[in-house]
Inverse folding.
């Protein structure tokens, strides 16, 4: 939900450049910290997690026009530094296949990286509160919090970009009335698999209406993703607890060591 589905040439150039500068700085810092912390052994896990994220972000839940991000799962398994690098890799692939413009890869990396790092941080805090046996609950709540905050960041970016950036597919939700209709009323073939010959473009919304639509669709998607994330993390915690409890996800000292590690 927090992925920026905006084509090239819509956002102001200075905002696009800012996104790339933040991405370059973040990846440079993350790469340095990963090297200092000797995280090279987790590179195969980065590939596997990135592949799962690509599958999730490319698969839409039709009635609510939402796709599963798996960002919090990735953040928990990879920790903050590898998450930032993974966010760039995933968004570069998505940009190259038309999942948003190429120029907004930087901004998308910032938004998704924030989502992943927030998920890691919230899970670490909530795991201490809920206890190790309730890792799935901690992951679910962390998902709700990180998705809500990253979506707020998305709305802020769209607000800066103006009404032209507010066009989006809203699935079965009517943006004018905020009511859901039957997405299959015209037939599965017509509405889902094959687009009509003269498909109408996505409605252009005001920024305020865009925020409302994203919040309505998002709240449903966040609950679904929280359930999926909690189930995955709960399963991994049972079968391979070392991936969660001995990795970067629960080592909150990593967040305090950023400044100290950069002086080594």
């Amino acid at each position: 939900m927090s992925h920026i589905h905006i084509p090239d040439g819509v956002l102001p150039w200075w905002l696009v450049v800012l996104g790339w500068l933040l991405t370059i700085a973040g990846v440079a810092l993350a790469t340095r910290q990963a090297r200092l912390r000797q995280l090279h052994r987790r590179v195969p896990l980065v590939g596997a997690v990135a592949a799962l994220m690509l599958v999730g972000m490319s698969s839409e839940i039709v009635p609510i026009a939402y796709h599963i991000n798996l960002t919090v799962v990735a953040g928990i398994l990879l920790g903050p530094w590898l998450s930032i690098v993974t966010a760039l890799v995933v968004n570069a692939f998505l940009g190259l296949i038309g999942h948003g413009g190429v120029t907004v890869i930087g901004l998308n990396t910032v938004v998704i990286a924030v989502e992943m790092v927030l998920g890691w941080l919230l899970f670490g805090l909530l795991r201490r509160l809920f206890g190790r046996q309730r890792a799935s609950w901690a992951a679910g709540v962390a998902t709700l919090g990180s998705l809500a905050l990253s979506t707020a960041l998305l709305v802020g970016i769209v607000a800066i970009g103006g009404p032209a950036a507010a066009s989006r597919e809203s699935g079965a939700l009517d943006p004018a009335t905020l009511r859901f209709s039957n997405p299959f009323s015209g037939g599965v073939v017509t509405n889902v698999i094959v687009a009509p010959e003269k498909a109408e473009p996505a409605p252009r919304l005001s920024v305020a209406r865009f925020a409302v639509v994203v919040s309505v669709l998002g709240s449903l998607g966040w609950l679904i993703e929280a359930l999926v994330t909690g189930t995955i993390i709960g399963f991994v915690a049972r079968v391979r607890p070392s991936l969660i409890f001995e990795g970067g996800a629960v080592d909150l000292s990593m967040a305090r060591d950023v400044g100290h590690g950069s002086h080594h």
User: Anything to note?
Assistant: The longest strand covers residues 60-61. Confidence is low (pLDDT under 50) at residues 187-199, 252-259.
